[in-house]
Specification:
heterodimer, A: 197 residues, mainly alpha, Helix Hairpins, 434 Repressor (Amino-terminal Domain), 2 domains, elongated, B: 316 residues, alpha/beta, Rossmann fold, 8-stranded mixed beta sheet, 46% helix, 14% strand
């Protein structure tokens, strides 16, 4: 719980001390957007003067951290305080939830399920996004886990005959609440392409 | 045969936020349905004491036992107020139907309700709260393992959410300190135009430290431990989605708290349609975009506690 003037440049931009220039740039853009005078997220909390102070701090943090030499000097001069606020101690990684590394990261939420390719890789992506492991799918569908792996890996050599495969895909789709027909069609397309190759 | 309950202690989530109409009850009902479909035993509690309607969202018609019966001691145990919803693994405690002043329930009565909710046996207890910043609403919100705020991207909703967060945080701080002087200071700080120049929690901490270093440390610990979650409802654009991140940043800079942005629900006309049919969206239109967003949030909640539920228990 530190005032803006007591925060490190990393805390101001809400990035880790190991952040890459690209991550810093992205965080800077987001911070600028958040603390823009017209932002609906700030106008009731901060006074005009406070917003200007935060904007100044964001600009300065960005200027220093995007310059390799300046960043190195800053890191050396503030080594202790940066370590204290390093990711292991920052609030965002202490909680029950972690936006990064959790089975369902926030960026995954932005994924439009309608745009996912209904083949093996897409299926795996959706399953992981729902936080369901393959063992659970195997238990639910009574399909051997090896077959499920082959389906996800699009291992055409090992896949069972079409008549069985369709049934497996249908069961798998049902567990994930997906459209079974769409999955079967997507997969048949994959098989056709595989044969052509 | 009813499966035995998970051996882990129950997890309690309170769903609140400053403004009525942001979708708290709708999300409580639908997240509850999602969790129940994972095989968890879920109990929904309608603690919107002034305007209970969770039962309507689940298509349950009165008469039924409600929280009023427990509060008026017509039914001695809260567990006896539980009603089946017709959805496997999902039970409901309906809100007060006939107590116009229920929102101002007496302290003792409130404590009895809070205690009894915590003693309910289920894997997940989801408590739907009313709007506003009444002390009883704040106390319900603070009893949770993780309070969830439901906000829409409109300035009015965001403004009320900040007001709610400030009230909840100061209430939590007030409960944690022992000095009467510090308690009075926190009370005074609630007035944004107070004479001591306390405009935010940082200013409050400065003043508390002047009174007592020990209480200052306690305030820091309490702020650190205060970790509400945010769901942004009815988003219509990528810009709306970004507002969630902005709210998170603003909270970190202003309150010094970490607000976890749990996810967003896209605006979807199927929502209105399911409400009119008095059927949970997850059951009525499970492939709609909003239903997918809710499913993902429910999965995040389930996964956050490393629970594993056997799909054998899921009845479809």
């Amino acid at each position: 719980m530190r005032r803006i003037e007591e925060q490190t440049y990393y805390e101001i931009l809400e990035v880790s001390p190991e952040a890459t220039p690209r991550e810093i740039e992205k965080a800077y853009e987001r911070a600028k957007e958040t603390f823009h005078v017209d932002s609906p997220a700030i106008y009731t909390l901060f006074s005009k003067e406070e917003i200007e102070e935060i904007q100044g701090a964001i600009e300065e943090a960005h200027r220093v951290l995007m310059n390799e030499d300046l960043r190195k000097s800053y890191d050396q001069a503030h080594q202790e305080v940066i370590q204290q606020s390093s990711p292991g101690r920052l609030p965002e990684v202490e909680g029950k939830f972690q936006e990064k590394g959790s089975p369902l990261s926030f960026s995954d939420l932005a994924l439009n399920i309608e745009e996912v390719d209904y083949r093996g890789a897409g299926l795996k992506q959706i399953r992981e996004r729902l936080g369901i492991d393959l063992k659970t799918i195997a238990a639910e569908t009574k399909i051997n886990i090896k077959i499920l792996t082959w389906i996800e890996e699009e291992d055409l050599k090992h896949l069972p005959p079409l008549v069985y495969l369709k049934g497996f895909l249908k069961s798998y789709a049902k567990v994930l609440h997906l459209d079974p027909q769409r999955l079967i069609e997507g997969y048949l397309q994959l098989l056709k392409e595989g044969k052509k190759r | 045969m009813k499966p035995s309950r998970n051996q882990n202690p129950q997890i309690l989530w309170t769903i609140g936020g400053g403004k009525g109409g942001s979708g708290k009850s709708f999300l409580t009902a639908n997240i509850g349905v999602c969790l129940s479909r994972l095989g968890a035993e879920v109990i929904l509690v309608d603690a919107d004491l002034g305007g209970a309607n969770l039962h309507t969202l689940l298509g349950i018609l009165p008469p039924f036992p409600s929280l009023s019966d427990f509060m008026r001691r017509r039914i001695p145990h809260l567990r006896d107020v539980l009603i089946a919803t017709g959805i496997p693994n999902l039970q409901l405690i309906t809100g007060a139907q006939d107590l116009l002043n229920a929102a101002d329930s007496k302290n003792l009565q409130k404590r009895r309700v809070l205690r009894s909710i915590k003693a309910l046996e289920g894997d997940y207890i989801l408590v739907d709260l009313g709007g506003g910043n009444a002390v009883s609403v704040l106390d319900f919100f603070l009893m949770s393992d993780g309070g969830i705020l439901v906000v829409t991207p409109e300035p009015t909703s965001i403004e009320n959410t900040y007001r709610f967060l400030k009230s909840a945080l100061y209430r939590k701080l007030r409960q944690s300190v022992s000095s009467h002087l510090v308690k009075s200071l926190i009370d005074a700080a609630m007035d944004g135009k107070n004479e001591m120049g306390i405009r935010n929690p940082h200013d409050l901490l400065r003043e508390v430290r002047q009174l007592s270093h020990e209480e200052g440390e306690r305030v820091i610990e309490e702020v650190k431990a205060f970790r509400p979650n945010l769901i942004l409802n009815q988003v219509q654009s990528k810009k709306d989605v970004e507002i969630g991140f902005s709210i998170r940043s603003a909270c970190r800079k202003y309150f010094g708290i970490h607000l976890h942005y749990l996810g967003y629900i896209v605006y979807d006309q199927e929502v209105g349609s399911s409400i009119r049919k008095r059927r949970p969206l997850i059951l009525e239109h499970d492939r709609s975009k909003a239903a997918q967003c809710i499913t993902e949030i429910a999965s995040k909640l389930a996964n956050s506690h490393q629970r594993s539920f056997s799909f054998e228990r899921t009845v479809r």
